[in-house]
Design a protein that fits this description.
It is a single chain. The protein is mainly α and 67 residues long. It has five helices and no strands. Helix 2 crosses helix 3. The longest helix is centred in the N-terminal third of the chain and has 10 residues. The chain is globular, with a radius of gyration of 10 Å. GO terms for molecular function: DNA binding.
Length: 67
């Protein structure tokens, strides 16, 4: 299950919003919100894009998406 609070804090620390994330992923804001809140899962490709977009470490990716 996604750790939405951690993902939201990483966005905030980098002064980015879910709207910015949606644009970076090429998704609608509604779809992105559902994924951030765990209603729908992120694809592996989307996780890779988020890792690059937010400059996350491998440990951070595991903490957010796999724990």
């Amino acid at each position: 299950m996604i750790q939405k609070n951690i993902l939201k804090s990483k966005l905030s620390l980098r002064e980015r919003t879910q709207r910015d994330l949606a644009k970076a992923l090429g998704l609608s804001e509604v779809s992105t919100n559902k994924k951030v809140n765990g209603t729908i899962k992120f694809s592996l490709n989307e996780v890779k894009k988020i890792k690059e977009y937010l400059n996350l470490t491998n440990d951070e990716v595991v903490e957010i998406f796999l724990v």
